[in-house]
Amino acid sequence: MQQTQKTAGQLYQVQTAQTYINIGYLLLSFPLGILYFCFLIIGAVVSVLNLFIIGIPLMILFFICWWKLAAFERKIAIQWLGVDIAPMATPLPAGATRIQRMLLHLRHKVTWKSLLYLFLKFPFGNLAFYMVLIIFILVVVLGCITLVLSLLAAPIVLLCVTLGNGTFNKSSIGRYLWHSTTGWGLNLLPLTILNFITQLWGNFAQAMLGMNENTRRLAELQEIAERERARAERADQSRRELIMNVSHDLRTPVASIRGHLEALQHTCAENSTRLPDPETLNNYLTIAHRETLRLGALVEDLLSLAREDSQDLRVQIEAIDAGILVEEIYQSMMPLARRERQISILRTIPPQLPRIQADRQRLAQVLQNLVRNAITYTPDGGIIALSLTPVSNDYVILEVADTGVGIAPEEQSKIFERFYRIDVSRTRASGGFGLGLAIARDFVVAMGGTITVHSTPGEGSRFQIILKCA
């Protein structure tokens, strides 16, 4: 019972606070209505009279101020009256000029409804001010009358309470005086009328200062259609870029392999009894082997891209030993780094490392892509470091760091996008579609992890992969 009374009291306090806010809103409507009316009349008259001189700039300024005032009214109605008002307009195109934006605004129904709202604010403000004034006087008069009548009836009430074995204390006397002043609830009726008027005006503001439901849904559907159209354009652009990249990047290693094999074949044809010297033969075969590795990596990237586009990118999550995998990557990539760029690869594998949840084959592909990128962008004699760091018993951080050229801050958010290349000439020389990091991100996310980059231009880059422990 006490809890129920406490809740009822809290609700009463909230209602009383909102009533005071409503009264404040009604009183504020009076000066605001006068301000809006004067602004609209003066602005319209001045703009029309000066139409052929400086009227167009004045009309634009008039329109901007008109829109801002309507937005201000919408904000007050939302914050003071607690009304849920839809946006006044849909988001404007990013590349639209100011004139285009203004023309789009003029086509919206809300623009003209807001103008009517600002005009009607003047009579409403006057009406609201006088109603608040009259109701205030009425409440005071009713309060005085009921207080006098209650005081005259107080001896009778005291006699009845005494005959009924009741008692009077300070608390009961205070409640009696409070109810007497409020007219035993009669004075709440005018306040209820004010709340009702404010609610009606709030509903009017909701209809005039926001898009209706049908327009809002249509705008949402148009926005979705625009996003899908932009997505289709990006996909089409990606396909065109893919064809251009494939035509160049696949042809380059094939042409290199064919050229060296033709040279070797030509040498053998000239002297069928004698093979080229071992150094020349080893050089030809090394180049052919390197180009086949590049060609295989490009084909693997294309297959991964095709799987992702067909939503057939599957990973087989299992508990694996990250230390063994890093050692395998180190052993396979170290000879390539030393032979091509005289780069040293280091690895740090702590003992008793917890197993991680990952797809072994996909994670190996991710690490190989990161190491190949590090080799590409690290100068001769540089260092690449592979490391594993456990974080409590929950996560393991796999890091690939290099002493390369680094990545500019404005490019760090783009390097995981498809076909993005920091240095096109360098990437084309080494082969690649600009897909390695995008595929690495997709694989890591599919395995439930995250991949981030930290880089300083001129000092190097650090790629960190965070995966859960098994």
Describe the structure.
By secondary structure, this protein is an alpha+beta fold. It folds into three domains: 2-211, no CATH class; 250-309, Orthogonal Bundle (Helix Hairpins); 318-468, Heat Shock Protein 90 (2-Layer Sandwich), CATH 3.30.565. The chain is built from 14 helices and seven strands. The strands form two sheets. It has a five-stranded mixed β-sheet with strand order 2-4-5-7-6. A hairpin with a 3-residue loop joins strand 4 and strand 5. Helix 1 packs antiparallel against helix 2 (51-81) and helix 4 (109-152) crosses helix 6. The two termini are 54 Å apart.
Structural class: alpha+beta
Instruction: Give the number of helices.
Output: 14
Q: Secondary-structure element order, as H and E?
A: HHHHHHHHHHEHEEHEEHHEE
Overall average pLDDT: 79
In short:
The protein has helices at 2-49, 51-81, 98-107, 109-152, 154-163, 170-181, 188-208, 213-249, 251-270, 278-309, 322-341, 360-376, 424-430, 436-446; strands spanning 318-320, 344-348, 356-358, 383-391, 395-402, 450-456, 460-468. The protein has 470 residues and is an alpha+beta fold.
Secondary structure blueprint with pairings:
Blueprint lengths: L1 H48 L1 H31 L16 H10 L1 H44 L1 H10 L6 H12 L6 H21 L4 H37 L1 H20 L7 H32 L8 E3 L1 H20 L2 E5 L7 E3 L1 H17 L6 E9 L3 E8 L21 H7 L5 H11 L3 E7 L3 E9 L2
Helix pairs in contact: 1-2, 1-4, 1-7, 2-4, 2-7, 4-6, 4-7, 9-10, 11-12, 12-14
